[in-house]
Amino acid sequence: MADQSPQIFRGLRGVYADTTTSSFIDGEVGKLLYRGYNIHDLAEKSTFEEIVYLLLYGELPTKPQLAEIDGTLRASRSLPSEVIDVLKVVKDSHPMDALRTAVSVLGCVDPERDDNSVEATRRKGIRITAQVPTIVTAHHRIRSGQDPVDPDPGLNHAGNFLYMLFGERPTEEEMKLMDVDFIIHAEHGSNASSFAARVAASTVSDLHSAVVTGVGVLKGPWHGGAAEAVMKMALDIGTPENAEAYARNIIDNGGRIMGFGHRVYKAEDPRAGHMRDRSESLSRQKGQPQWFQILSHLEREVMRPYQAKGIYVNVDFWAGSIYYLLGIPDDLFVPIFAVGRIPGWTLQCMEQYEDNIIIRPLTEYVGPMDLEYVPIEDRG
Ligand code: ACO
Predict the structure, then answer these.
(1) 40 a catalytic residue
(2) Number of domains in the chain
(3) 103 lines ligand 1 (CB under 6 A)
(4) What does pTM read for this prediction?
């Protein structure tokens, strides 16, 4: 008799679940396009506001279109009082847990919460994009015993984020660093958190619920939590000479080196290079070259042999060192990823709503069959 077992693609590896016009990834050569545009052009020449428009409308904006979306983003940054109240209640929790909770509250009070049309979803996505930086920074200020800083409509998205975090206007260079960081995190196809957000949308649940799902999935150290773990690792390693023994010990014990490897990229993640050079110059400027030296040694020497297995640095490897050098606490690294990723999650949900099918794969049952139910008083 022929084998009746279904073919199983564990982790859905290599499975195409749908089509998309959001982003194109060629993992073999390390190529990434948003809506057809190369990430290298976008990271070097564009702005996060332009990327929000590109992702949510499908084309680069004209000057008036850019001015309009930028104005809407700047005008949508403040939070309903209910969100601030809840942030005070959860002030001692991890910032990702606080963010997940706060987005959920936003969903309870959003004026269009029950409207899942593509137009309303886009408007909600723009609002959430504007509000998430305010949530992350307000929670951080509250837990530090400080008052939240009101958004400054005179600053762009990246500059305003840093301003609300530190209460001081950032330099042009700091703003540019954050802007590039948000651009390279904005969208990435069917990654775990975007896929999870799509699953939520496929039940015709609302965008806020999908974003709550995305935040929960992004939090894990095998996904967005890697940047925080990379910087912890660099601090543990301490000096470049210790890197080899440190990494060897992790790998020999079956562990993974954070910031390396990717489900899709088997060449260098094209986003990583945009952070590498910036990490190097910031390390020098801040008089702390050791972090770049440790990470660079890890990449160029210790992990080089693993390139033959397709394990290269990913986007999170260099990002953590930049946040650290900017003075950002390490538990805010993954919320920063979420700040950048809201447009991507929104786009994935819009696509799902536009041509919906519920996402519901199968798992092969391998447990016992047809067991006899024994009443509890008769069980040994
Ligand atoms: N360090 C050491 N070994 C690794 C690493 C790593 N970082 N990543 C993968 N490997 C090993 C695997 O253990 C596996 O070994 P095996 O063949 O002996 O079993 C082999 O390389 C192949 O692994 P993949 O199948 O390519 O990895 P998978 O797709 O299952 O996982 C993942 C991808 C989760 C990203 C993994 O590389 C990892 O855990 N990396 C560290 C965490 C990290 O940096 N995450 C951020 C990813 S980027 C992002 O989410 C934005």
Answers:
(1) no
(2) 2
(3) no
(4) 0.95
